[in-house]
Design a protein that fits this description.
By secondary structure, the protein is mostly beta strands. The chain has three helices and 17 strands. The longest helix is centred in the middle third of the chain and has 7 residues.
Length: 328
């Protein structure tokens, strides 16, 4: 649930908390859904680790009236066709390849979003209710639930501000295990698989704060710039890190021509990486993206690790968005 969605946003290094205003706002800032004027549909696909893992996303949003909107999104991250070799060797010590089976491990995130305009002009709020499902073949599975809350504020001079509070309830996952399968492998390797893992898993809250500014030039050209601060309440290797919180900035730009062709760039994921000689090196993740929109169809591409400046989880992302208002 932290990877991100939409190639347009990923091309800007995820710096869209203040400016997200379409169907993908259900993920980035649900308050932005109030800007959806008709039904919208979004799809995205990306592959990890030379197509070993697949990351897929689908979302739908629509207005309820002139002051509120709803959205629904589904994320799936999975590794399929994993070899189960736990029964490769039988009780007599014989190797039998017919005993190998295949299984999948998959994480699902289903999000229900609601957004509404407040009486103060330009101020909107949104909430997410998330259901998390995690499956590891027949070995283990879990259910989880969490809530997000967000606001957006737009001024009359093209300034936008956004705040996204993720997992404000401390998202909780409860695991159940196949104890028969565990008993078959318990003790197979000395010192390993001696006890069942913890049955509960929590995700601590996170904050994303964004400020965006848009500029128009000669009617045909537009530039949008945004800076976000991603705050996690733990100490890690982010650019700014203390014992109580860590802050990681992200900076994104989008240049548009006649509201049809887009070029995007961004910098984010700043990390202090410990080197083999115990020194620290500051790494970052630059991004680049292009987009094309025509008659309600928008196709976007993002390359999220230019020059291999960081150990990026993935690099090539494609997404498409349909705005049904153009088909009327």
């Amino acid at each position: 649930m932290n990877i991100g969605v939409d190639a347009a946003a990923l091309g800007m290094s995820n710096a869209v908390t203040a400016s997200s205003n379409d169907v993908n706002a259900g993920y980035w800032n649900p308050a932005g859904l109030v800007n959806v004027e008709d039904k919208q549909l979004a799809l995205m696909h990306s592959s990890y680790f030379a197509n070993i893992a697949n990351y897929d996303y689908a979302a739908f949003a629509m207005p309820l009236d002139d002051r509120s909107a709803i959205g629904l999104s589904l994320i799936r991250f999975a590794v399929d066709d994993i070899l189960d070799t736990t029964q490769l060797i039988d009780d007599q010590g014989n190797v039998n390849y017919d005993r190998i089976r295949l299984f999948s491990t998959a994480d699902y995130g289903l999000t229900f979003s609601y957004a509404r305009k407040l009486p103060l002009q330009g101020l909107n709020y949104g909430v997410n209710a998330k259901v998390i499902r995690r499956i590891i073949g027949d070995f283990a599975n879990s259910w989880g639930f969490g809530l997000d809350a967000a606001i957006q504020f737009e001024t009359g001079n093209n300034w936008k501000f956004g705040l996204m509070a993720r997992d404000i309830t401390t998202t909780f996952n409860s695991w159940s295990y196949n104890e028969d399968a565990f008993a078959r492998i318990q003790g197979a390797i000395e010192g390993q698989n001696q006890e069942l893992p913890e049955a509960s898993e929590i995700t601590i809250p996170k904050l994303q704060l964004g400020v965006s500014k848009s500029y128009n030039f000669n009617y045909d050209y537009a530039l949008r710039a945004e800076i976000d601060l991603n705050v996690r309440f733990e100490q890690n290797n982010d650019l700014i890190s203390t014992s109580s919180a860590s802050i990681n900035p992200a900076l994104g730009f989008e240049f548009g021509y006649i509201d049809m062709i887009y070029l995007r760039a961004g910098l984010g994921n700043f990390q202090h990486e410990l080197q083999i000689d115990n020194s620290e090196n500051l790494s970052f993740q630059p991004s680049f993206g292009v987009g094309f929109k025509y008659n309600g169809i928008q196709i976007d591409y993002a390359f999220t690790d230019i020059g291999d400046q960081s150990i990026a989880l993935y690099s090539n992302v494609f997404s498409v968005k349909l705005d049904f208002s153009a088909f009327r």
